[in-house]
Amino acid sequence: MLLSLNIRDMLLIDRLDLAFQPGLNVLTGETGAGKSILLDCLGFVLGWRGRAELVRQGAERGEVTAEFDLAADHPVWAVLQEAGFEPEGELLVRRVNTQDGRKTAWINDRRVSGEVLRQVSETLVELHGQHDDRGLLDPKGHRALLDDFAGNDAALAETKAAWSARAAAAKQLAQAEAALAAARDEEEFLRHAVAELDTLDPQAGEEATLDTARRRMQAAERVRADVAKAHTMLGVEGAEALMGDAARWLDGAADGLDGALDEPIAALTRAMHELAEAEQGVARALDVLDFDPFELERTEERLFAIRGLARKYEVQPDDLGDHADALRDRLTALDAGAGNIADLKASLAEADAVYGQAADALHDRRAEAAGRLDAAMAAELAPLKMERAVFATGIADAPPGPEGRDAVEFTVATNPGAPAGPLGRIASGGELSRFLLALKVCLTGHASGLTLIFDEIDRGVGGATADAVGRRLSALAEGAQVLVVTHSPQVAAKGAHHWRVEKRVEGEMTTSHVAPLDETERVDEIARMLSGDRVTDEARAAARSLLD
Question: In the predicted model, is pLDDT for residue 227 greater than 80?
Answer without folding.
Answer: no
